[in-house]
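Backbone geometry:

***
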Amino acid sequence: MKDLFERIIKDKGPLGKWAEQAEGYYVFPKLEGEISNHMKFNGKEVITWSINDYLGLANHPEVIKVDAAAAAEHGMAYPMGARMMSGHTEFHEQLERECASFVNKETAYLVNFGYQGMVSAIDALVTKNDVIVYDMDSHACIIDGVRLHQGKRFTYRHNDMESFEKNLKRAKKIAEETHGGILVVSEGVFGMRGEQGKLKEIIAFKEEYNFRILVDDAHGFGTLGKTGAGAGEEQGVQDDIDVYFATFAKSMAGFGAFFAGNKDVIKYLQYNMRSQMFAKSLPMAMVKGALKRLDMIRTMPELRGKLWENVYALQAGLKEKGFNIGKTNTCVTPVFLEGDIPEAMAMVHDLRENHGIFCSIVVYPVIPKGLILLRLIPTAAHNLNDVKETIIAFSSIREKLEKGIYKRIAASLM
């Protein structure tokens, strides 16, 4: 019999094996200063493209005022205990009502964290007799939720409706045999590629295949649609989404999340999501802060206007310079380049130290081997000069990458 830790010590995983070289700089970096378009990294000012503060609310004076007042009045512990036992308040109920109204659903239920909530909701919604069909590029929280499922599950190729229907047919056949149902799971916006999920096309199959759809709209909530209600509103199918999910960690610059939908379904989640039944309630400071943020999203469309001004400028500038930004049709702006992990580290070091640009670097196993993804998140806090400087910097590092300069630098450091 082996020691349990023998494998762990020998094999640290595809990312963990780079920990010694990467930790503190490429992974687990320390950004300092106020959350904004410019922050401090490694002692230098950088333009930050890695903060999911889409609408620039993180340090908005009105938000800070409400957050501070709520913390001063309630501390960070109140309410104490799980919602079901002792952590329930009128303000939690108010936030649920307002979230439901904003996304045009009957009712909503707050959860403490988006990742935790999505895993638990998938587990609660299905039994072993049911079948799950989900996009192969789904976020890790969806994948982990699906892993808990004791029944059948099928993935379809990303946003590929032919593959989707093929797997729907397989799911329908099994569900008929087990007397179960079908749950389809998609993201409203895929956070790495920046593509919207094909919700309208997926929903067109509902009548024939009799499935229910759960949409994770973490990146769409607050950014897409006429009012900011998300990808469903943008595509004109919000009413057809059975369970809508959004997090406060992106547009609302906070933490917490919610599910919204039919009263009976949401009530079922409220009484059957184990991660919430046995978890401490969302602190009052975050609840009141979320109420303020939601009000600003509703009443200050200029924040969304400024965000999209920066998005259009950045994406148009990158495409004009010949960069591959995939099929993004959202704020998320991926730049795809060819190279390996050591090259990526050398390139990002150059970007940060010599050009003052801080963006997220994504490599295998999140994306295929041989590709480097530099992910930029434009926000309402950025300006057109930030965009100009960034495009100049990207043009410089691409030239070095193509000449093999980073490969030689990486080889000398290995």
